[in-house]
């Protein structure tokens, strides 16, 4: 397996990044010694909104300037290959189902729990897109009338259960204490992103642990809704949850015990992502395997597009 990672140059826009993709793909094909005619496809995992049928990246908030970019046509024309584009949450669900914690299950929910909160749904053994590709936008569910903002909505599932949401909770909690005449150590941080709050919590900071406990409680409430409506066998959660399960899960589990239907809860388990930080790369590869090579070794190239770009190539094989 070979992987190349390069940072976003936001001012360069999509043209510069796609040029680098093309060059990197060609370099990797040369390094593997695989003729272009033997490559069966290119997979791309990208945050939405996007149009997977038309192969368009529409206007993702974390990719300024990427408006109606026909990335599938651009790469397909250059390499003469089919190109598969998919929402990153859906692609990650496929990856965990094929290679990770979801192997062997027919009904799988994958939650991103990263910059935002989205879901990929494997239902009855198939990736579920919905009527117009909007299935899985669970971050938009409102859990409270007021609260941290995520997905453009106060008190949303994403507001409580994302890196940005945890940062907002931290800011509110610090301000609350300062206005009471207390000056918490956490408030001395230059910024309060989720990683810094998690580090403080792991080091025993009481306020930081309370922040994660709040996120965990609302995670449990949101999971209970998914358990009752979708009746999954397993819910797999990535990113912040995968790195900080010990801080989030106790409170989440208590809420699930209180809120979800006993029969549905009994057949569902909640696990962290097995693929960890590499899930985005496996996600793009899973798209190619799902589309073109279910049970055979095939050369493939894949990329994930996010705050940074990466391209990865490997021979797909049964894992």
Written overview of the protein:
The chain is built from eleven helices and 14 strands. With 319 residues, the protein is an alpha/beta fold. A hairpin with a 2-residue loop joins strand 13 and strand 14 (308-316). Helix 5 (163-179) crosses helix 7 and helix 7 packs across helix 9. The longest helix has 25 residues, at 206-230.
The helix tally amounts to 11
Based on Cα principal axes, name the global outline. globular
Total strand count, please? 14
Sequence of strands across the biggest β-sheet: 1-14-13-2-5
The largest sheet, given as strand count, sense and whether it forms a barrel, is: 5 strands, mixed
Chain-wise SSE layout:
Layout: E1 2-7, H1 13-32, E2 42-46, E3 50-51, E4 56-57, H2 71-79, E5 83-87, H3 88-99, E6 108-111, E7 119-123, E8 126-127, E9 149-150, E10 153-154, H4 157-160, H5 163-179, H6 194-202, H7 206-230, E11 234-237, H8 239-243, H9 245-259, H10 262-266, E12 269-272, H11 279-292, E13 298-305, E14 308-316
List keywords for this structure.
alpha/beta; 5-stranded mixed β-sheet; 19% strand; disordered C terminus
Summarize, please.
This protein has 319 residues and is an alpha/beta fold. The chain is 42% helix and 19% strand. Helix 3 (88-99) crosses helix 11 (279-292), helix 5 (163-179) packs across helix 7 and helix 7 (206-230) crosses helix 9 (245-259).
């Amino acid at each position: 397996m070979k992987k190349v990672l390069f940072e976003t140059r936001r001012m360069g826009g999509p043209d510069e990044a796609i040029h680098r993709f093309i060059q990197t793909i060609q370099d990797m094909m040369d390094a593997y010694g695989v003729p272009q005619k033997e490559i069966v496809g290119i997979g791309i995992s990208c945050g939405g909104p996007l149009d997977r049928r038309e192969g368009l990246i529409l206007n993702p908030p974390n990719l300024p300037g990427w408006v109606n970019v026909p990335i599938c046509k651009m790469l397909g024309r250059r390499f003469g290959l089919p190109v598969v584009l998919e929402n990153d949450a859906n692609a990650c669900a496929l990856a965990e189902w094929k290679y990770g914690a979801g192997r062997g299950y027919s009904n799988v929910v994958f939650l991103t729990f990263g910059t935002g909160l989205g879901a990929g749904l494997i239902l009855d053994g198939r990736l579920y897109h919905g009527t117009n590709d909007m299935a899985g936008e669970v971050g938009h569910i409102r859990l409270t009338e007021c609260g941290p903002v995520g997905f453009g909505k106060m008190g949303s599932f994403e507001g409580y259960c994302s890196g940005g949401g945890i940062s907002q909770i931290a800011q509110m909690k610090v301000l609350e204490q300062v206005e009471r005449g207390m000056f918490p150590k956490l408030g001395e941080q230059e910024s309060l992103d989720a990683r810094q709050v998690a580090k403080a919590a792991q080091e025993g900071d009481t306020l930081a642990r309370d922040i994660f406990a709040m996120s965990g409680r609302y995670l449990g409430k949101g999971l209970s809704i998914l358990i009752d409506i979708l009746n999954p066998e397993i819910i797999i959660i990535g990113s912040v949850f995968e790195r900080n399960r010990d801080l989030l899960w106790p409170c989440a589990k208590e809420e699930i015990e209180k809120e979800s239907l006993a029969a549905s809860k009994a057949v569902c388990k909640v696990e962290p992502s097995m693929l960890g930080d590499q899930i985005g790369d496996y996600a793009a590869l899973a798209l190619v395997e799902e589309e073109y090579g279910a049970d055979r070794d095939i050369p493939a190239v894949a990329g994930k597009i996010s705050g940074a770009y990466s391209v990865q190539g490997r021979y797909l094989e049964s894992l």
